[in-house]
Write a structure and sequence with these properties.
Helix content: 25-40%
Number of helices: 7
Structural class: alpha/beta
Radius of gyration: 15 Å
Order of helices and strands: EHEHEHEHEEHEHEH
Strand order of the largest sheet: 2-1-3-4-7-8
CATH architecture: 3-Layer(aba) Sandwich
Number of strands: 8
Largest sheet: 6 strands, parallel
CATH superfamily: Alpha/Beta hydrolase fold, catalytic domain
Number of domains: 1
Distance between the termini: 13 Å
CATH topology: Rossmann fold
Shape: globular
Amino acid sequence: MSAGILYLHGFCSSPASWKARLLADVLDARGLGKRFCCPALSHVPQEAIAQAEAIIREQGKSLTLVGSSLGGYYATWLAEKHDLRAVLINPAVVAPISLDEFIGTQTNLYTGESFEFSHEHLEQLRALEVARVTPERYLLMVETGDEVLDYQQAVARYAGCQQIVLEGGDHSFTRFPDLLPQLLEYCGL
């Protein structure tokens, strides 16, 4: 099976996020569009994981996970469970704590769909915490200007992993286009 990417978007995001679209467009332009998958993840953590695992079962070990924000949290759990590699972009490291302030009605930034985020969802996120990561499995990409998550938590959590830490930027990871060559090389594409 040829190498492929399973992109996991963040909280209140979707496959329409600019990073997901850019990655899809770049792969399409190279004739590799069929090797990219970015599902619209459920806001329910257990359901989001089930969606990703269904794709992993179908695609097998040829996948590299690319997770942004909450998608990075999911990617870590999935990478450890399924022996996969992952690129983490401004990942949520302590998602149950980071998302605690979002209990209540939320709106997807791209679809406009409203949903309820609950304490039960936080418990589902706690169940996905990984005690220890396997350093050779990850490429971490963070910008120090992330206004949503503390990049230092990610740097510490993924100590020993390949890391690209860039000054400035924001939570959207502004220099994503510049790092596409490294990302694609890491993914075997």
